[in-house]
Amino acid sequence: MNSRNEFYIVVGGRILTTLVSLLSVRLLTSQLDASQVGLYYIIQTVIMLVSFALLNAISEYYNRNIHNSYESGAFFSSSIKLMLLRFSLVGVSIFPIVAVYYFFDYSEQIQLTQFLGIVVLSLIAGSSLVFLEALNIVEDRVYYTVVGLIQLLVGVLLALTLTHFIEGVALWWLVGIASSQLLFFPFVMHRIAKHSRQKPLSSEYVCFLSSSQRKKVLSFAIPVSIVLFLQWGQISSYRLILGENYTLDILGFVAVGVAVASAVFTAVEAISRQYLGPRFYREISKSEREDRALIWNDYAKIVIPIYVVTLFFTVFLSKEILVILVDSKFQLAWSFVMVGAFIEFFRASSYVVYTVTSSELQSKKAVLPYLSGFLVMAALLSISDLNQEPLFSMLIIAFSYAITFLVLYVEMKKMLPIVFPWKEVILPSVISLLFSLSLFFDVEFSLVFSLVKTAAFGLLYISIVFFLIKKVSKENRLLGLYRA
Question: pTM to 2 decimals?
Answer without folding.
Answer: 0.78
